[in-house]
């Protein structure tokens, strides 16, 4: 059960990460990265961000690239939320394949 503070921080991080990825993917034509969910640990030290990538064939490659460049993403996040948070949590990024799973279920139900 997440506390109210955890929920507020999750929403703040999700909004800022979405802005960061939107700016970074403008140069990449045909790629869309959105932050679907952010979960933060009770001590606010680790944040797990789930990313939805379109097209989904590139999802693993893009998330691996983001994880490799996590320090620069965390720095950018820190510059944006430095007045709201004292400590910027460690970021971990994962592929959110719930949309692909839902499409797969729809295809199974149609047949």
- Count of runs of 4 or more consecutive helical residues: 4
CATH top level label: Alpha Beta
Would you give the CATH topology? GMP Synthetase, Chain A, domain 3
Secondary-structure element order, as H and E? HEEHHEH
Describe the largest sheet.
3 strands, mixed
How many structural domains does the protein architecture include? 1
What does this structure look like?
- The protein has four helices and three strands.
- With 111 residues, it is α+β, with helices and mostly antiparallel strands.
- The chain has one domain (4-110): 2-Layer Sandwich (GMP Synthetase, Chain A, domain 3).
- A three-stranded mixed β-sheet has the order 1-2-3.
- Strand 1 and strand 2 form a beta hairpin.
- Helix 1 (4-25) packs across helix 3.
- The longest helix is centred in the first third of the chain and has 22 residues, at 4-25.
- The chain is globular and about 50 Å long.
- The chain starts with a helix and ends with a helix.
- The relative contact order is 0.17.
